[in-house]
Specification:
Strand content of chain A: over 45%
Strand content of chain B: over 45%
Radius of gyration of chain A: 14 Å
Number of helices of chain B: 0
Largest sheet of chain B: 7 strands, mixed
Structural class of chain A: mainly beta
Oligomer: heterodimer
Shape of chain A: globular
Largest interface: A-B, 28 and 31 residues
Chain lengths: 114, 117
């Protein structure tokens, strides 16, 4: 079975600091995808990124970047120059059942203080 | 935009009551899911459905049942609510089988926070 571990349960930073959220996974699949979702206080999970294991290049989208390292089974998420609006719970997830459903990590609550 | 709507944001029920949580999606998605969210445990899958009248158990189906009579609607039923079912319940949907696309993106509703007294 797939397993996703987010060791950081809660992180608190001051606005404009950089912050990295860790994600470590276990899978028997040779090719797979990884996801990150954001859950703001409103409750609705919002899709951030889906990444294929074939592609280990870092992904950057504005202040967000993702570092995928297959050798260490990690898919870490960095927010540069954090803002109060980044405060949320962030989930890393790994598909199973041929990609039709997701296994989620425990989530990391990020609090960005002004 | 894909919209997943959960009928109740907050519910308070008593032990032993029957509870219905309703979820409706408006984008003709084949797949629908019910997850339960608890602090530190992340999201755990209760049940999912690939088609009308079709259901499969997830990781924690005990104490729950589901119903999918129409493609757009997926209901979660607690036959006899217990205090350990106090939680946040999240409904999600996705389109078709993942197949060659590799993995489906799930779209979530805003959640239903259930308190069982």
């Amino acid at each position: 079975a797939q397993k996703v571990t987010q060791a950081q349960t809660e992180i608190s930073v001051v606005e404009k600091e950089d912050v990295t959220l860790d994600c470590v996974y276990e899978t028997r699949d040779t090719t797979y995808y990884l996801f990150w979702y954001k859950q703001p206080p409103s409750g609705e999970l919002v899709f951030l990124i889906r990444r294929n294991s074939f592609d280990e290049q870092n992904e950057i989208s504005g202040r967000y970047s993702w570092n995928f390292q297959k050798s260490t089974s990690s898919f870490n998420f960095t927010i540069t120059a954090s803002q109060v609006v980044d405060s949320a719970v962030y989930f890393c997830a790994l598909p199973e059942n041929a990609g039709n459903m997701l296994t989620f990590g425990g989530g990391t609550r990020l609090m960005v203080k002004p | 935009d894909v919209k997943v709507t959960q009928s109740s944001r907050y519910l308070v029920k008593r032990t032993g009551e029957k509870v219905f949580l309703e979820c409706v999606q408006d984008m003709d998605h084949e797949n629908m899911f019910w997850y339960r969210q608890d602090p530190g445990l992340g999201l755990r899958l209760i049940y999912f459905s690939y088609d009308v009248k079709m259901k499969e158990k997830g990781d924690i189906p005990e104490g729950y049942s589901v119903s999918r009579e129409k493609k757009e609607r997926f209901s979660l039923i607690l036959e006899s609510a217990s205090t350990n079912q106090t939680s946040m319940y999240l409904c999600a949907s996705s389109s078709g089988l993942a197949g060659i696309s590799g993995a489906n993106v799930l779209t979530f509703g805003a959640g239903s926070r259930l308190t069982v007294l």
